[in-house]
Write a structure and sequence with these properties.
- By secondary structure, the chain is of the alpha/beta class.
- The protein has a single domain, classed as Alpha/Beta hydrolase fold, catalytic domain (Rossmann fold), CATH 3.40.50.1820.
- Helices cover about 35% and strands about 20% of the residues.
- The protein has six helices and eight strands.
- It has an eight-stranded mixed beta sheet with strand order 1-2-4-3-5-6-7-8, with helices on both faces.
- The radius of gyration is 16 Å and the shape is globular.
- About 40% of the residues are buried.
């Protein structure tokens, strides 16, 4: 397992799983974890993005609470711990750590300096915030939670953003989905895709709500998006 050590802006350091493509220098992605930590699923995602030609890093954003969390979605005890970690997580500090990761990637010898972010669940919320609070070149949010409470951030977004929204998301009510899609409608920088009939985490391989067809469509859209904004 290859790790990247990242210096935090306020002191100390944390690690991230690092996957390198066959050819470098290459554009890079900050791959933002779900509530389960940098587990095998996140490492597999980094490896997959690397196979598509990106330097991919998934930083340990829970390091200030408990370093090296690696949970699954298979037991009630793990779910409870994951929700506890999410509830204790400082979102604003987390964004600062993601910005530190972004800076580390811009300076890394294996990258071109073009860096985007992609996040899932909690990570999808943070990818949205990377669009408003960082200089990330492009950002993708998969079923981000609580975005309806962050719509004031839209005025700060000046780089391309893509949202993948599950129509039957158990954590994002229909009313919230409608607020989000209405708020971003007509914004040339933001593309919002709704996946009808799909629940939260439809792109999590092996998850209870995994939908291979919807995941393929979302991933293809993400790769096209990143290709346009990071590889050109």
């Amino acid at each position: 397992m290859t790790q990247l050590q990242i210096a935090a802006a306020d002191g100390g350091s944390f690690s991230g799983y690092l996957a390198l493509p066959a050819k470098t220098p290459a554009p890079a992605l900050v791959v933002i974890q779900e509530i389960f930590g940098v587990n095998q699923g996140m490492r597999d995602l980094c490896d997959w993005f690397a196979a598509q030609g990106y330097v991919a890093v998934s930083p340990d954003i829970f390091w200030r609470i408990e370093p090296d969390v690696q949970l699954t979605d298979k037991t009630e005890a793990e779910w409870q711990k994951a929700f506890d970690l999410m509830n204790r997580f400082d979102q604003d500090q987390g964004v600062e750590d993601l910005k530190s990761t972004l800076s580390a990637l811009r300076e890394h010898d294996a990258t071109t300096g073009k860096v985007g972010s992609v996040g899932y669940c909690l990570g999808g919320r943070l990818a949205f915030l990377m669009g408003s609070r960082s200089d990330s070149d492009a950002n993708v949010s998969y079923y981000g939670v609580g975005l309806d409470g962050l719509l004031d951030e839209l005025r700060q977004i000046n780089k391309p953003l893509m949202l993948h929204i599950a129509s039957e998301d158990q954590f994002v009510p229909k009313e919230a989905q409608d607020k989000i899609t209405a708020a971003v409608a007509g914004n040339a920088l933001i593309a919002a895709h709704v996946y009808e009939g799909n629940d939260h985490a439809f792109a999590r391989v092996g998850g209870a709500h995994y939908d291979a067809a919807a995941a393929q469509t979302a991933n293809d859209r993400s790769l096209t998006f990143f290709g346009e904004h990071l590889k050109s």
